[in-house]
Design brief:
Elements lengths: L5 H27 L3 H7 L7 E5 L5 H8 L3 E6 L2 H10 L4 E4 L12 E7 L8 H11 E12 L6 H13 L18 H10 L2 E9 L2 E3 L5 H9 L2 H7 L3 H17 L3 E3 L2 E8 L2
Parallel strand pairs: 1-2, 1-4, 2-3, 4-5
Antiparallel strand pairs: 5-9, 6-9, 7-8
Helix pairs in contact: 1-4, 1-8, 6-10, 8-9
Bound molecules: S-adenosylmethionine (SAM).
Length: 270
């Protein structure tokens, strides 16, 4: 097993997000936005609450929290993503910042949320500890990640195609397992270790309606980071076969893929 170098993984993710910031919306937003209201409900976001949206990307969660009357701020380590968010939601507060080193004081927020951010961090435990630090006692954390690939079929179809026809062990900077927090027990363990109480995990049913059977490959190849690197590292002659296999897999589901999310939440105890 390869050792994780969190700094190298962070650089790899950062370069990737800087490059694809403008394409992320057309690729993934249709599915990641489906869990926003469940995420905000879990964090009990309500009028007047100060809310931090970590790894905000184009700002969907920040905007939804603000439209509930909360005082929301979004942070992301990609300056390009922050530009996207500011362009999409002028008037809302977005700042460049690192999930693992929050530039906020202790106990500043009533809720910290992150929609599909945790699986991109080299040191997610540190981010969860940071969330705990900036929350006031009684405040809530909530985050979503993808469910396992047997259920989130967009990933399942792609991974099976690579496993069958290509190579999953290509030289890209290793990070924590992509599906680590798909395991409810692992979510609870890390939340409790950071000092949170009452951890709870639920599942959010989501469906990805793709425009065509080719769209899954295209979105993964052009609009993601780790999965794009995995595809780009395949031999060109093999990649064509992988693409055809992914297309067939999507076609079997008539371009509608189940993409459930795992939603974890907990409270900072008094
Ligand atoms: C899958 S996107 C999620 C975007 C958005 N939250 C949504 O609901 O679609 C992951 C985001 O995490 C950001 N990110 C990755 N590592 C980060 C870090 N260490 N600190 C802050 N943001 C980070 C990326 O720049 C990217 O915008």
């Amino acid at each position: 097993m390869s050792t994780i170098d969190p700094a190298a993984f962070r650089r790899f993710e950062h370069e990737g997000w800087q490059e694809i910031a403008s394409r992320y919306h057309s690729g993934f937003a249709a599915v990641t936005t489906q869990s926003v209201s469940a995420l905000l409900d879990a964090a009990q976001v309500r009028p007047g609450l100060r809310v931090l949206d970590v790894a905000c990307g184009p700002g969907y969660v920040t905007a939804a929290a603000a439209s509930r009357g909360a005082h929301a701020v979004g942070i992301d380590f990609s300056s390009e993503m922050i530009e996207e968010a500011r362009g999409r939601y002028p008037g809302l507060e977005f700042r460049e910042g690192d999930a693992e080193k929050l530039s906020f004081g202790d106990s500043e927020f009533g809720a910290v949320v992150s929609n599909f951010g945790m699986l991109h961090l080299g040191r997610p435990e540190i981010a969860i500890q940071e969330a705990h630090r900036v929350l006031r006692p009684g405040g809530r954390i909530a985050f979503t990640v993808w469910d396992t690939p047997d259920k989130a079929l967009g990933f399942g179809i792609m991974i099976s195609a690579i496993q069958r026809l290509g190579d999953l062990n290509v030289p890209i900077p290793p990070g924590p397992p992509f599906f680590r927090f798909s395991d409810p027990e692992e979510c609870k363990r890390v939340l409790v270790a950071a000092g949170f109480g009452g951890p709870a995990v639920t599942h959010v049913p989501q469906v990805w309606q793709l425009e065509s059977a080719d769209a899954l490959f295209d979105v993964m190849y052009h609009g993601s980071v780790r999965n794009a690197a995995l595809l780009r590292a395949q031999k060109p002659e093999v990649l064509d076969k992988i693409r055809a296999e992914i297309r067939a897999g999507v076609d079997q589901h008539r371009n509608e893929l189940p993409m459930p999310a795992v939603l974890a939440t907990a409270q900072k105890e008094n």
